Amino acid sequence: MGIVERREREREEVRRKILDAAHELFASEGYDRVTMRRVAEAIEYSPTTIYNHFEDKDDLVNALCEEDFSKLLALFEGQPPPADPVEWIRQLGRAYATFGLQNPNHYRFMFMTPAKFERVPQASASGVQSFSLFRSAVEKAITAGQFRPGDPQALAQVLWASLHGAVALLITLQPQHWPEGAAVPDLVERVIENGIRGLVARPARD
User: Fold this and answer.
1) Least confident of 25-34, 52-61, 142-151, 160-169
2) Cα separation of 195 and 16, whole Å?
3) Looking at the structure, do residues 69 and 43 belong to the same domain, yes or no?
4) CA–CA gap between residue 164 and residue 205 (Å, rounded)
5) Quick one: angle between helices 36-43 and 57-77, nearest 10?
6) Which of 28, 133, 141, 193 gets the most CB atoms within 10 Å of its CB?
7) Region class of 194: left (phi > 0), else alpha (psi between -120 and 50), else beta
8) Where among 32, 54, 76 does a domain terminate?
9) Positive or negative CA dihedral for 137, 139, 145, 146?
10) Which of 11, 77, 96, 6 is nearest to 45 (CA)?
11) Among 27-36, 67-76, 100-109, 113-122, whose mean pLDDT is lowest?
12) Distance, CA of 116 to CA of 32 (rounded, Å)
């Protein structure tokens, strides 16, 4: 390995350390409390090193978001969509919940960390694509007459919001903190089915 290749590998290793440390800090302490100096201290580097890789804190946040949403998108695209759009919605919903429950810190950072950005953040390309897939499934269900007519964007947001609520609760609450006992084992499945039932087209009356 030549000098250039070794330096590039070392640079990528440092960048990876920065991203991993920042990820944990943002998820556990929140956007406002984490500074670039705090990230530098976590990996025992100088703040200058952090700025050699990222322009500012928001640039670091954007990099983290894109990386996390890329993982979610890969999970969405890892299975071919079924011919039945409603079944596709179920598939995407299960994949979304699986991602959140298997990666709780990532999920907290992506969807549960309050942020007051110093400048308007860039939209995550992978995040946009992930939601677009979900919206496409909803649109197909409407076109096929399986869902009642409506704005696909709004209906997709309704389904996502209800599923997010379930995932967030499962991540946040310990079993003993749920009222009257732990969450039912099939909570995610029930939330998905309840959301779908609320959007299905009513059969035409004679």
Assistant:
1) 25-34
2) 39
3) no
4) 35
5) 70
6) 141
7) alpha
8) 54
9) positive
10) 11
11) 113-122
12) 7
- Residues of the chain above pLDDT 70, percent: 93
Number of domains present in the structure of the chain:
2
Which residues on neighbouring strands pair with residue 44, listed in sequence order?
none
Across residues 32-47, what is the average pLDDT?
90
**C-alpha Rg value of the chain to the nearest Å:** 20
Q: What is the rounded CA–CA span in Å between residue 131 and residue 12?
A: 30
Domain assignment present for 203: no
pLDDT of residue 115: 59
Instruction: Give the domain extent around 47.
Output: 1-54
Residue 106 pLDDT class (50, 70, 90 cuts): confident
Average pLDDT over residues 72-79: 91
User: What's the pTM?
Assistant: 0.81
Q: Could you tell me if residue 170 is inside a domain?
A: yes
